[in-house]
Structures are given as structure tokens and as C-alpha cells.
């Protein structure tokens, strides 16, 4: 392992959303115990609805997972964050896992760092982006990123969450590059089932303001997070896969329905 390099995993999502979630959890565990270095996963996922831990406790959770399935999206329970988010082919799923001796101490600073990396990525591609929460946005958070859509209306394009381990932190998020309507088509009935409010008019995508390629956004994000360091592409280690398969059912609502 070369600590000065950012290890990047891409092109290795399985299409099994609960297993992919479990892989990220396994990486967090391994970075925390020192068996893996700082690792960034950045990829274009398949169709999934990632529910937060708060959603699982909601009376309408079972109905919401069925709604996701009926819409053609695999439900999974994500590691970090508040409420449900959507992945589809024109989104970017990223997970940045960093070793830390005191992960609690710098939790909010890390949220800000990730949001700024996303802003810098989008601005380097020609989109003006701002950090902040919009009234009525899905999975609201002060470190969301939005762009000015049609008629200069702000639109959310990125949300993030954070999970802490004993000696590591993991920032995970989604950037919607294209097809914001696909997000609303799923989240509106899912949020209704969960008893949550959302304003679909503030759901947006990067393509609202600039024509970009989804893969180009993913590649540029990795460069921004590397921040001048070298980047090395790596594969998921067999030990990581073994741990993930053991954890998979924790993230599959259908496994304990």
C-alpha cells in the first residue's frame, strides 16, 4: 500500500444494491482497522432506492420498499444519512473512506470538504454550484449542493451522508448528472409511503445547466478528491468481498420482510 496515493475503485458495482452497500461498509471496517488505505469508490450505479436508518423505523417502510420495487428500483438500506435517495444510470455514486484517529472531531469539516469538492468538480465543467439546503428538498441537509436551473430556480444535484467507525470516516453521496425526472418519479410515491414531504420542483440534475458526460463527472470528481496526489485504480480485495457477503442481508429489506 502507498499512503500518498488515493486508491480508487470504479467499474466494480455488482448490480446487487444491498451487496454493493455491504462492500462500502466492509471497506469502512478495513480502513478503520488499518488493513486498507484511504479509498474512493466512484461509479455509475444501477437503479436503486437507498433508504436511511430513519426510514426503516417508519410505519410505511414496507410499503415504500414495495413502491421502489414496483418502479423497477432495488431497495437497500444505506450505511449513512437520513432519508431515501435514488440511484440510476445517470447518477454518480461515490464513497470516500478516510482513516482518522478522531473521526468525530472533524465530522462537519469533512462534510464541507466533500461538498466543496463536488462544487469544484461541477464548476470545472461549466456549472455554477452552491452548497446549502433548499426548502422541500429530498433527504435535506446543510451540505447539499445545488445549481441554478431553468428560470434561475435552484435545483438540488448532490446529497451526502457520513458514517463513522472507530478510526475512520466514510462520506457517501449521489450526484444526479441527468434525468432528474427519474428521481422524482420514484421518490414522490416512496416519500408519500414514508409520510415525508418533498418538493419535486427543487430536484435537479447537472444537465439542467450544462451538457456533460456522466463518466466525465465521475473522473473529474476523483481528481478533485485526490487534490494533486497520484491516483491508483484498484480492485475490490477478496477479504472485502468475504466481509461484504456476510453483511449483505443487513442492507436488504427483502431479507427480513
Task: Walk me through the structure.
By secondary structure, the chain is an alpha/beta fold. The termini are far apart. The chain has helices at 17-33, 53-56, 61-70, 107-124, 180-194, 214-226, 238-247, and strands spanning 6-9, 39-43, 48-51, 74-77, 85-87, 91-99, 129-131, 145-148, 154-165, 168-176, 231-233. Helix 3 packs antiparallel against helix 5 (180-194). The longest helix is centred in the middle third of the chain and has 18 residues, at 107-124. The strands form 2 sheets. Strands 7-8-9-10-6-2-1-11 form an 8-stranded mixed sheet. Helix content is 34%, strand content 23%.
Cα end-to-end separation: 41 Å
Order of helices and strands: EHEEHHEEEHEEEEHHEH
Which CATH class of the domain at 44-91 and 99-225 is shown?
Alpha Beta
Biggest sheet strand line-up: 7-8-9-10-6-2-1-11
> What is the radius of gyration computed over CA atoms, rounded to a whole number of angstroms?
17 Å
CATH homologous superfamily name of the domain at 44-91 and 99-225? Bira Bifunctional Protein, Domain 2
Secondary-structure-derived class: alpha/beta
CATH architecture of the domain at 44-91 and 99-225: 2-Layer Sandwich
| Stretches with pLDDT under 50, minimum 5 residues | none
Within the CATH hierarchy, at the fold level, what is the topology of the domain at 44-91 and 99-225?
A: BirA Bifunctional Protein, domain 2
Overall spatial form: globular
Mean pLDDT: 94
